[in-house]
Amino acid sequence: MSDSMDYFGSENEIFRNKELLQVSHLPDGDRIIGREDELSDLANAIKPATRGNTPNNVLVYGKTGTGKSLCSKFITTQAVERAERNDVSIGVAYVDCLQESTETQAVQSAGHQLNDQPETDISIPHSGLSTSEYYRRLWRIIDTRYDVALIILDEVDKIEDDDILMQLSRAVESGKLTSSTVGVIGISNKVRYKDSLDERIKSSLCEREYVFSPYDATQIREILRSRSDAFHEGVLEDGVVPRVAALAAREHGDARKAIDILRFAGEIAEENDLETVTEDCVDQAHEREETSRLAELISKSPSHAKLVLEAMALLTQQKEGDDAPVTTNEAYDLYKRLCERDQSDHLKLRRVRDILSELEFLSIIEQERKWAGKGKGNYMENRLIDDPAVILAACNESE
DNA sequence: CCAGATTTCCATAAAAACTAGA
DNA sequence: TCTAGTTTTTATGGAAATCTGG
């Protein structure tokens, strides 16, 4: 795992093993810092699964970068290993509900991860089946391959339909599964999420609830140190780790952000051919980090959403104030011209309105409906949350 | 046939401007 | 002059229809 071949060894003085700085990197047991209580809570809830019994369904709350996904993935892989010793087979599916935002897609994804076509002779086509057929196949796969299936639903609050929670959390009692059982781990950033749930779902999904608190400054520093093996000996200057930690602390102790910044700092040192990673690199890395999350979001968006955003960014730049609002019609007119530029046909206004509200949902823009009075009707003000220049860069980058 | 994307159609909200009544 | 009620307007957003790729 951690012995990737270093083909450019002599030239690459900065990184020894960059994988350690991948946020999704699963550290060894002793490398999850400051989450001991959370891990044992989770382990407790999952425990029955290792003996082939139905685990407790869990709902995990916490702000971004508090280790929710990491701990969930970690504890489930541990559970799989432990279960093997008891001759129990556990299957784990990790569904990112931000990507798989509908019930069907989520079930499809879970099925795909748990499946092994040669063994089960069940195929999970990318599309074309009814939702219920995806469910049927999922149940069959679980029944044939596993004793217990653990399904992690990351960012559950982003899913449009509550039905999947109902189906999964009650699969056993409703007799969909005969020889197996299912456990659900729901992860959400919103503490309020539970309130929006149907009573029946609440009672079955929320058997256990845990809140992950933000890391404090000391823990962030520890996390960074534990991952500094990613760098060669002595490459990190003394001030670097504290400086990164300080930046992350400003952001409610977001460990993901801290790790990203550290990685970018290394990359910047590398690009500039420096011997060491300096505090200066960290400051530049901070800026790059702010851009990168946005760029990632944008690059995953459909092309027309990018054009709408581009139109908004251009219009915002044209206007005087920094956060000048743009009306939907202004944006739509420019969007149409951008489509002509790309010689593709434009979407209709109604669809663009929906795209704008999707962008609002992703916290890329803010919307406010305004009324102008008699004879003037109403209009929507859309304003970019981030710097238009950054948006434009992100739009162009992902062509 | 299915889900998901897009289009078509249309009732509606809200507040300044206008009107009638006091 | 002040008040209460009515008019006017348009983008919005819900719902249904239609299209598309598999």
TrEMBL record:
Residues 309-395 form the Cdc6 C-terminal domain. GO terms for biological process: DNA replication. Keywords: ATP-binding, DNA replication, Nucleotide-binding. Residues 54-216 form the AAA+ ATPase domain. The keyword Metal-binding does not apply. Pfam families: AAA_22, Cdc6_lid, WHD_Cdc6. Gene3D superfamilies: 1.10.8.60, P-loop containing nucleotide triphosphate hydrolases (3.40.50.300), Winged helix-like DNA-binding domain superfamily/Winged helix DNA-binding domain (1.10.10.10). ATP binds at T66, G67, K68, S69, L70, Y215, R227. The keyword Nucleotide-binding applies. One of its GO terms (molecular function) is ATP binding. Involved in regulation of DNA replication. Belongs to the CDC6/cdc18 family. This is ORC1-type DNA replication protein.
